[in-house]
């Protein structure tokens, strides 16, 4: 039976900010990472080493890593789409060698449909897997951990309902390449608990559930329910974004990830324990404040329901 410890991957600084239209200063992004670390978050996806022509907002990720406060026992994974991204990460690590290192983990990503992979990576899914395999091998060789993402595991904005067998095959390919974990993304955020359940049943046929993570966007308000469904299935790693920030530039209309505050609130008093560094967990009130702080930096209000309720009390 699975442990009751839930790990949160805080994707706010990456998924949360990558879709913003205005330029966010590096100092604000680094401050976000620092605040998340102080609130007890152990895994903070700090940004991406992708093409700035494709995703301009992630251009300063090296400086975000350099400026953010360092915490022991906190990891700062970054997204990498290709060899060029990995080379940028290793060059940065070589230039600034420190203990703990600036980062020890990359995330690679592809999708369950060709249409989405084309929009996001300019390749078919098969081509992307072929290109990523040597990148993963090189990263492992350089001592980095590698996480994999499969996008559009329920529905694709370009080709509709997704075949869960395809999700399983793509996830399995990432595990076989050497990813220690695969995060299953409901990129569009249309997924219902029933669909998440059916999708996980299929993927679990090929991958031990301990190697799976859930990544739910909240477009239709089902993200917290989908998190609980994934936990029921034995998934113990959940991607979440403070303030409910986020969206993918290549998933039109999708809103942010499940808010980290909402997940923390929903799991209070449950059989689950969220792992973190503040009294062994993540501090909900601090996270609610951070959700408001970063949202106000972006000129709006926090969209986290728990964050709004906490402010109002
Ligand atoms: P391409 O145009 O086919 O590639 O894009 P290219 O090799 O022709 O490169 C185009 C330009 O980008 C060149 O510059 C390259 O040097 C440069 P130029 O020569 O024209 O001046 N370039 C780079 N620059 C910096 N770092 C790099 C890099 N690579 C190329 N690593 C490519 C192919 C993969 C580069 C592009 O499609 C790309 O960057 N895609 C990333 C898209 C992205 O970041 N999407 C969001 C993240 S995924 C997501 O949000 C989903 C997730 O949250 C889960 C879920 O919700 O489902 C994870
Ligand atoms: Mg996402």
UniProtKB/TrEMBL annotation:
Domain (Pyruvate carboxyltransferase): residue spans on this chain: 6-288
Pfam families per record: HMGL-like (PF00682)
Keywords annotated in UniProt: Lyase, Metal-binding
Principal EC category: lyase
Any one GO molecular-function label of the UniProt entry: hydroxymethylglutaryl-CoA lyase activity
Substrates-to-products reaction catalysed: (3S)-3-hydroxy-3-methylglutaryl-CoA = acetoacetate + acetyl-CoA
UniProt xrefs under Gene3D superfamilies: Aldolase class I (3.20.20.70)
Keyword Nucleotide-binding included in the entry's annotation: no
Entry EC number(s): 4.1.3.4
InterPro entries membership: Aldolase_TIM, HMGL, PYR_CT
Keyword Cytoplasm attributed: no
Family: Belongs to the HMG-CoA lyase family.
Name the record gives this protein: hydroxymethylglutaryl-CoA lyase
